[in-house]
Every structure is written in C-alpha cells, then in structure tokens.
Prior knowledge:
Elements: H1 2-17, H2 22-26, E1 56-59, E2 67-69, E3 78-80, E4 83-85, E5 93-99, E6 102-109, E7 124-128, E8 132-136, E9 170-178, E10 181-182, E11 188-190, E12 193-198, E13 201-208, E14 228-232, E15 240-248
Antiparallel strand pairs: 1-15, 2-5, 3-4, 4-15, 5-14, 6-9, 6-15, 7-8, 7-14, 9-12, 10-11, 12-13
Amino acid sequence: MKMKKLIVLMSLSASLAGFIPINAQQKIDPVATELWDPVPPVITPGDNGNPPSDAIILFNGKDLSQWKSKDGKDAKWIVENGILTVSAGAGDIFTKLGFGDCQLHIEFREPEKVEGESQGRGNSGILVQSRYELQVLDCYNNRTYSNGQTGSIYKQHIPLVNACKKPGEWQTYDIIYSAPRFSENGRVSIPAHFTVLQNGILIQNHVEVWGPTEYIGMPKYKSHNLKEPLELQDHGNPVSYRNIWIREL
C-alpha cells in the first residue's frame, strides 16, 4: 500500500509541476506571441494547368530556349504540338540555369505503343542538380527491381506505392527538393532530401539522398555548387514531357 501511495503522489507532483493556472495564462498579452515581419510575398496560384506567378517556365511548349545539350550546344529533342519528346541518341538535355532548393512540376507521358520490358520500357529520368535521379519508367503492369521502378530515387529509395497510369496517359510529378550542403573540407554536412507526389499521390516522403545516382556500386557524395542544372535523360525511349516549371525555394 505504501508503494502505491508513493506512486500516486509522484504522479500528482509531476502533473502539478507542468500545470499553469488559468488565471496566469489570462494575464499573458496575446500580442507578445504575434509576428508581423517578415511579410510573405503575394503570388498568384496557378489554375487549369497554369504555373504560379513566381515560377520559372522551363518548357513553354514552343521551343528549347531554356535547355542545352551536354556539350553546351542547342538541345536536339523533338518539340511538336506543345510537347517535348526524347530524340533517341540525341543525349541528355540540361537547363541553362542552375537550381538548388526547389519545387519542381513536370508532366510526362509514356509511349502508347508498349515495347520492351523491365528497364527497357519507357525509360527516362529527371536528375536534379544533374546528379540525383527520380526515375521515369513505364511501370503499368511492368515488373522491374523495386528501387528502379517509376517514382524511385534510383537505386536508393523505393516509392511508397505504384501510382502509374496507363501508357499514353499524361502523368505528373510534383517534387520538393532540398539540396545538400557541404563543409569546407568537402564533406556533406546536410544531405539532399526528396518529397515527391506522383499524380497527386505521395510516393517519397522527405527521403534522404545517399549521394549521386549510381548504376553500379554505392553512392558517395562529392562537393558541388549549390545551384546546378536540371537534367532530363535520353535512355533511348520516346518519353514525352510538357508543362515544366520550377520555383526556387
């Protein structure tokens, strides 16, 4: 009985220690916890497929003026009817501007004519900072290794779900990306992180990137600039893109 009384008394003491009388709370001026600065800037949200007013348009449906090839020359992908399509053999394309922390919106379409299987079916990719790949692949009724399927941070993080639409249907990626930071000695001090929604479904929830995308072996960070180009991958399949915009964070 003495032990039970002691436990009750200890619990009561702990509760009283964290208790603030209502009268004391009422004496606190609510203005003391109000912040008026800084004032968030006003933007116009996008609707009907339009980007928000503070977005940088990376593909306007007309030309590749925001893009270049790896050698710095004009990008050679196909632009027709407001759509950008991989031209097999033309190589990856890169934005002329560099980006770090960002919100990226991009829409993609897998070829309606199904050819190949596993990694050979509708393969492309979005490489943020030209290093960290979000996989683009046709995984509608197409089995491949899980950390290489659509929505994976390639060979690092498996997507939470397979949210793929049928080949020939437009799909969306909405990406929140936090760039890595490096210390003076070149070592990573804060790793990169991805949050990704595919077709409005959360598939990557603030996952930590282990280093640049590697096809063979384990990734390892190497110091680089905070702002680097966005890269779209030519993997030999006619994957299409449209409505690409980005917001710097």
